[in-house]
Amino acid sequence: MTRQRPYPHLVLLSGWGVDQRIWQPLARYWPAHISVCAVDWPGYGDTSALPENATLDSLTDAMAHQLPDNAVWVGWSLGALLATALLDKLPAPRALILLGAGAAFCSDDGVTQAELASFRRAFARDPNATWRHFLRWQAQGEPNARHAHAQMRDLLGNAPSADHATLAKGLTWLATLNNHQRLANAPCPVARVVGEHDPLLGSAARAKATTLARAGHCPMLSQPERLAALLAAQADTLTSGETP
User: Cα–Cα distance between 72 and 63 in angstroms, integer?
Assistant: First the structure.
């Protein structure tokens, strides 16, 4: 008797300054055969923060039980960069889906290194105000940016759930992670999804991705039904070639 390939289980991973609540708008749209859980990075929500001198090894230890190898990892923005970096450290997942991310955060025609450096200086002066600015920045590519920003504020509140040290470490990872080699030699199938009007991505990241029309960096807010369907379809496709 042939053993049936298990249906995909998706683990959702959020981006900088944002915890797992950002995924709530998708909850009612997942296909019945897909199981989904959203987990927080260390320091977000109720999770313990890493030490200030944390390394990818520290992150690996903290996430080892949150990122099983029998799942499809779905990373958004910084979450995509970190999930890709952990391919070096953890048993490979069934597949990896990168949402709103390329191999690195900065690019010449997206967010430049100079822009990120300026953002980090602003964060050092006033972390909470800079976080609120980032929420507005992320929303700019959505069809109704004001509404998307209001959605984020309703979901996340007026202050980040992570402490300032955790957020600062995240900005360091945004500035320094480069996953070009990891993606070129990925130990699992990889797919990429970007919003058509994502204000944070350059052309190199867009060229390798499936485009979600009429969406920006936060399609879980502006296009939750279409995003859930697309992520489920990607997961099905990426795992369809597995040996039963």
Answer: 15
Q: What pLDDT band is residue 4 in, cutting at 50, 70 and 90?
A: low
Reading the block at residue 25, the tokens are 């708008």
CA 136 to chain centre: 17
User: 143 vs 76, 178, 219, CA distance in Å?
Assistant: 19, 30, 10
Give tens-digit pLDDT for 13-27.
999 999 999 999 999
Helix (H, G, I), strand (E, B) or coil at 163: coil
Contacts of 156 (CB under 8 A, 6+ apart): 18, 19, 21, 22, 135
Which of these, 40, 212, 72, 78, lies nearest to 141 by C-alpha position?
212
Kindly report the CA angle at 223 between 222 and 229, in degrees rounded to 5?
A: 160
Backbone φ and ψ for 44, nearest 5 degrees, come out as -100, 150
Tens digit of each residue's pLDDT (9 = 90 or more) over 58-107:
999 999 999 999 999 999 999 999 999 999 999 999 999 999 999 999 99
Give how far the C-alpha of residue 91 lies from the chain's centroid of Cα atoms, to the nearest Å. Answer: 19
Look at residue 121 in the predicted model and tell me its pLDDT: 98
Token representation of residue 40: 């927080």
Residue 97: its H or E element: strand 95-99
Rounded to whole angstroms, the Cα distance separating 168 from 202 reads 23
Which among 99, 36, 102 has a CA at the least distance from the CA of 72?
A: 36
Q: How far apart are CA 64 and CA 81, in angstroms?
A: 16
